[in-house]
């Protein structure tokens, strides 16, 4: 069977992969979207579907319910590591916003909401390492540290945290981080992403490096194992795991920053030569290559949804923006519909609970939904949205007993990196202006549509366009296109969202949605 790269033209960063028999499981980063830490499964390495989540939510607090000015944008669940050890499965990730590391375990990878232990320390971008009957976390940025885990995985061993090695500083924009650690054939292999600075002769790109250790005393050898930016100049493909199949063939899964759609994964063969992993083919990530598997198609990671569900259980492709308010959404209050009850008072999308989201896919993604407005009250605003730093919304707003169609969007020159770093997402409301365009609505039902156009792969303008229809067939454009771009203020790719909130009251009415459809063809 042939593998085609990239595996997904969709946001799936910070992968780790664990093989169990002839099945492969992958975890990825979704930051502040809940449930957290999606687990994907594949039998052929090309087709993957989401089968579970490590936890339903990270914390039940103001930060994860968008209360009192708190939020986890750009933070949340980062770079989860997976491990199978003595018949049990483990996952570990850090949350910088909480100042904690979370260690989870389960006896079934496809069961959501694993058992959890909270460690009151930040082990940045850690990786499990099992070596000589002891499990460690290897972590850090530049200065790489190691700490031992207790035998019962209830925490770390007191006094075991120490410096393992220091990565080069000179000429580096980003020192080593994103560790993936392995013990193989008597050696320890530590893989990291690093980013050399530009020189007069060459632009630095992110690359993958490997440290080989004989033991944990700190002595090492070092090699660059992948330095390739594929079809997007300046955006190196790096950071991810090594793993094997049941026949002993080895692979690597790395990702690349690919514009507004997010960070997408690439699969490549690995050859072991003279005790070192050789990634890709002739130093490059192949556009395609053969693997010894039979094609096993799966459900997509982005899906349409009729919302005809008998229980209040979401399809696994959906995630909430932060943790939902459990009483404010339902499939059962009006069977065949998603009901979102409006809560407030909320003046901006980013502080509204219960926004339901999915990924987008390059180069083109179109989403439509039918909105029923008969349950809306004054102050309610409901519809579809583009979840990005420079967001956009198309929906219906009710004021003084009258409804209108509204396009609302952030407008202005893109905030520079130093402003984003200093202000964070919520502070950027002082940078951008918010503009609106409106249209008259005299019906209780309207169809809404958002089209994402990510341009030619690696280049070209990226935009979202907004439409509405009164009959579900003929769509009218509302406003101009919204420019799309990736930003560290969110640290995730562009998403489609369904929202409903009230701008005036603590509790408003409700909006009913039906027939959410996704298409990747114009």
Description:
With 522 residues, the chain is an all-beta fold. The protein has two domains: 2-286, Tachylectin-2, Chain A (5 Propeller), CATH 2.115.10.20; 319-519, Jelly Rolls. Helices cover 2% and strands 47% of the residues. It has one helix and 38 strands. It has one helix spanning 417-427, and strands spanning 2-4, 16-20, 23-27, 33-34, 36-42, 49-55, 78-85, 88-95, 100-106, 115-119, 127-131, 134-141, 143-148, 162-166, 172-184, 187-196, 207-213, 221-226, 242-244, 250-257, 263-273, 276-279, 288-290, 319-321, 329-330, 338-343, 356-359, 364-372, 380-387, 392-399, 402-411, 433-440, 445-453, 463-469, 476-477, 482-483, 495-502, 507-519. An eight-stranded antiparallel beta sheet has the order 4-24-27-37-29-30-31-32, with no helix packed on it. Strands 25, 26, 28, 33, 34, 35, 36 and 38 form an eight-stranded antiparallel beta sheet that branches. The longest helix is centred in the last third of the chain and has 11 residues, at 417-427. It is globular, with a radius of gyration of 23 Å. The mean pLDDT is 96.
Shape: globular
Please tell me how large the radius of gyration is.
23 Å
The class by helix and strand makeup works out as mainly beta
CATH-assigned homologous superfamily of the largest domain: Glycosyl hydrolase domain, family 43
Mean pLDDT: 96
CATH class of the largest domain: Mainly Beta
Number of domains: 2
- Share of residues in helices: under 10%
Tell me about the largest β-sheet: 8 strands, antiparallel
Strand content: over 45%
Poorly predicted regions are none
> What is the fold named in CATH at topology level of the largest domain?
Tachylectin-2, Chain A
Individual helix count: 1
CATH architecture of the largest domain: 5 Propeller
Would you report the number of β strands? 38
Q: Distance between the terminal alpha carbons, to the nearest Å? A: 28 Å
Describe the strand arrangement of the main beta sheet, using strand numbers: 4-24-27-37-29-30-31-32
């Amino acid at each position: 069977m042939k593998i085609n790269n990239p595996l997904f033209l969709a946001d799936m960063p910070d992968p780790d992969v664990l093989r169990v028999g002839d099945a492969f499981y992958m975890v990825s980063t979704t930051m502040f979207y809940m449930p957290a830490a999606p687990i994907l499964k594949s039998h052929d390495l090309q087709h993957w579907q989401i089968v579970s989540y490590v936890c339903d939510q990270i914390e039940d607090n103001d930060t994860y319910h968008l209360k009192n000015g708190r939020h986890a944008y750009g933070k949340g669940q980062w770079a989860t590591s997976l491990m199978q050890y003595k018949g049990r499965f483990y996952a570990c990730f850090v949350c910088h916003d909480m100042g904690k590391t979370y260690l989870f375990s389960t006896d079934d990878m496809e069961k959501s909401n694993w058992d959890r232990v909270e460690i009151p320390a930040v082990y940045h971008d850690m990786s499990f390492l099992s070596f000589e009957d002891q499990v460690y976390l290897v972590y850090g940025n530049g200065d790489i540290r190691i700490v031992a885990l207790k035998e019962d995985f209830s925490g770390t061993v007191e006094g075991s945290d120490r410096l393992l090695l220091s990565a080069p500083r000179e000429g580096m924009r980003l020192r080593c981080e994103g560790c993936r650690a392995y013990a193989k054939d008597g050696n320890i292999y530590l893989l990291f992403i690093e980013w050399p600075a530009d020189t007069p002769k060459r632009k630095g790109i992110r690359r993958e490096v490997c440290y080989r250790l004989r033991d944990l005393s700190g002595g090492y050898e070092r090699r660059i194992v992948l330095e390739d930016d594929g079809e997007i100049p300046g955006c190196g493909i790096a950071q991810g795991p090594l793993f094997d199949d049941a026949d002993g063939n080895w692979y690597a899964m790395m990702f690349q920053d690919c514009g507004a759609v997010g960070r997408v994964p690439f699969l490549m063969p690995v050859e072991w030569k003279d005790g070192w992993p050789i990634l890709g083919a002739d130093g490059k990530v192949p556009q395609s290559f053969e693997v010894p598997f039979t094609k096993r198609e799966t459900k997509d990671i982005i899906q349409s949804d009729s919302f005809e569900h008998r229980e209040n259980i979401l399809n696994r492709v959906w995630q909430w923006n932060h943790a939902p308010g459990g009483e404010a959404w339902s499939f059962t209050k009006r069977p065949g519909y998603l009901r979102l009850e409006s809560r407030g008072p909320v003046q901006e999308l980013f502080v509204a609970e219960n926004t339901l989201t999915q990924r987008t896919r390059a180069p083109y993604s179109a989403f439509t939904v039918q909105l029923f407005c008969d349950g809306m009250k004054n102050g309610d605003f409901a519809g579809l949205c583009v979840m990005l730093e420079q967001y956009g919304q198309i929906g219906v707003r009710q004021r003084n007993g009258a409804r209108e169609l509204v396009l609302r969007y952030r407008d202005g020159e893109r905030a520079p990196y130093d402003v984003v770093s200093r202000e964070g997402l919520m502070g950027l409301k002082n940078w951008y202006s918010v503009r609106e365009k409106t249209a008259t609505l005299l019906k209780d039902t309207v169809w809404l549509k958002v089209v994402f156009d990510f341009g030619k792969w690696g280049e070209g303008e990226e935009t979202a366009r907004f439409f509405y229809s009164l009959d579900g067939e003929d769509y009218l454009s509302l406003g101009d296109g919204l420019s799309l771009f990736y930003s560290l203020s969110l640290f995730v790719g562009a998403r489609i969202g369904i929202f409903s909130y009230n701008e005036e009251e603590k509790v408003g009415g409700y909006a009913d949605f039906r027939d959410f459809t996704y298409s990747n063809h114009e």
